[in-house]
Structure formats: C-alpha cells, structure tokens
Amino acid sequence: QVQLVESGGGLVQLGGSLTLSCAVSGFTWDDYIIGWFRQAPGKERDGVASMWIGPGRVLYYSDSVQGRCTISRDNDKSTVTLQMDSLIPDDTGVYYCAAEPQWKVQYGRLLARDFTSWGRGIQVTVSP
C-alpha cells in the first residue's frame, strides 16, 4: 500500500525559505515518480516539481518556482524533499506529494490527474 506523508509546512515571511518533506513507503523506490503539487484556495491543484526517484532524475519545475525550488531525495530516509527559497505570497497553498509508477507518467508535464496516490497535504502560508 502506497503511503505518503508530508511535513515541514508552516508560516513564513516574504523572501523566506521552507523545506517540505514527503516520507514515502509501500512501493518500489526505483520505479516511481514523486510529484509536488500546490493548491491555492479556490484554485486547481498545480504541479510544482517532480522527480523520478530511482535515478534521482529531476523531471519538472513549474515556471513559477524555477530557480527558487529544488527537489531532491534521500534514499536512506525514503523521503523526497522540496526546498523552497525566496518565497512569495503566491506560493501560499496546500502542498501535496503524490506518487505514480514512472511508466504511467508523461514526461515534460506535471498534472494532478496523472497521479493516483496522494498524501494528505500540508499548509504553507507566505505572509507579505
């Protein structure tokens, strides 16, 4: 059974940094893509970053976070981390990590509808 648990959210000031972690279990580490998504109030769930965790291959950053976020993995801890820097109010939202076998995900995009296993989400709020 695939399980994903997000941690590390909270309130941060404009320009600050935050590290989100996604603890994963229940599947073969090498075969899966992990995606980070953000959902702002009243908006759709948008892709932020993704990685094929087996080879540690970064697949996607959204234009809105390119250069400000870094996705990485820790094999020993079975976690995928999203480091976010230079945060702005538009980064506010509930952040979710999701998992899907890599052969089921089309590269070059990050769409919520392509993922079937999800964490519960964690709130990130950036104050002006």
Beginning-to-end CA distance, first to last residue: 40 Å
SS content category: mainly beta
What is the arithmetic mean of pLDDT? 95
Query: Low-confidence parts, pLDDT < 50 over ≥5 residues?
Result: none
Describe the main β-sheet briefly: 7 strands, mixed
Percent helix, as a range, is under 10%
Return the string of H and E elements. Answer: EEEEEEEEEEE
**What is the overall silhouette?**
globular
Strand content: over 45%
Rg: 13 Å
Question: Count of DSSP E strands?
Answer: 11
Summed up, the helix count is 0
What's a concise summary of this model?
The chain has 128 residues and is mainly β.
Describe this structure in words.
Strand 5 and strand 6 form a beta hairpin. Helix content is 0%, strand content 52%. By secondary structure, the chain is mainly beta. The strands form two sheets. Strands 2, 4, 5, 6, 9, 10 and 11 form a seven-stranded mixed sheet that branches. A four-stranded antiparallel sheet has the order 1-3-8-7, with no helix packed on it.
What is the topology?
Layout: E1 3-7, E2 10-13, E3 18-25, E4 32-39, E5 45-52, E6 57-61, E7 69-74, E8 79-84, E9 93-101, E10 117-118, E11 122-127
Parallel strand pairs: 2-11
Antiparallel strand pairs: 1-3, 3-8, 4-5, 4-9, 5-6, 7-8, 9-10, 9-11
